[in-house]
Amino acid sequence: MATTTIDPDTELSAVNSILGSIGQSPLTTLNFNNPETAFVYNLLVEANKDIQNEGWHFNTEENLKVTPDSTTKYINIPSNYLRYDLHDKRIDKSKDLVRRNGRLYDLVEHTDQFTEDIYLDIVTLYPFEDVPPVFQRYIISKASTRAATQLVSNRELAALLQVQENAARANVMDYECSQGDHNFMGWPEKTAYSPYQPFHVLNRR
Q1: Is 47 within the bounds of a domain?
Q2: Residue 171 CB coordination number (10 Å)
Q3: Burial class (CB within 10 angstroms; exposed 0-12, middle 13-18, buried 19+) of 58
């Protein structure tokens, strides 16, 4: 029996999916000298940023320690950080962090120099090819809807693609709930809450 190989999505396959959704021919390479290719690729990049900016389980790290530069005392913000804030503002009211001049700035102390480590919750932007497949499909769907709206101005096509986008988001939400194990209890770092499950009543020993 022949083995079927399933290749993961790449930026090229994603661009071709977007082009296919608006009735355009596929590409063999990403040639950014072609205005249409460059435009569709930018839609893919924008959709990737917009979706990851929401902050999902796969691209969010909580209680991450960052250390000021030993010389300048600055905490520079990497270009792939989408969001960052104190890990628990309910407890630590001594800081209010924002971005200024590419680094953290404290609105309480009115300074961008820090003398101690800070613990942040950080949302990171990852390249398209490094995000989970279910998110890749959602990104492609969102970019396709935008292509139908901005590139070909076809309202009926955009409406049909919007239905696919909504279905893709539903799949993302299902994945997020399964992976994140979220609950409303707000348990501390490195702990988890196991909810009551009725079938345990039948498990008598």
Answers
A1: yes
A2: 15
A3: middle
Longest dimension (CA), the chain: 70
The total number of structural domains in the chain stands at 2
For 171-199, the pLDDT digits (tens) are: 999 999 888 776 666 666 666 666 666 76
| Structure tokens that stand for 49 in this block | 């940023």
**Between the CA of residue 118 and those of 139, 150, 172, 194, 196, what are the distances in Å?**
33, 43, 32, 30, 36
Domain that holds residue 108: 59-124
Nearest to 38 by CA among 50, 48, 49, 27: 27
pTM for the full predicted model: 0.84
What would the pLDDT profile of 18-58 be if each residue is shown by its tens digit? 999 999 999 999 989 999 999 999 999 999 999 999 999 99
**86 shares a domain with 111:** yes
159 inside domain: yes
CA distances from 59 to 62, 64, 197, 198 (A): 10, 13, 29, 33
Does 102 reside within a domain? yes
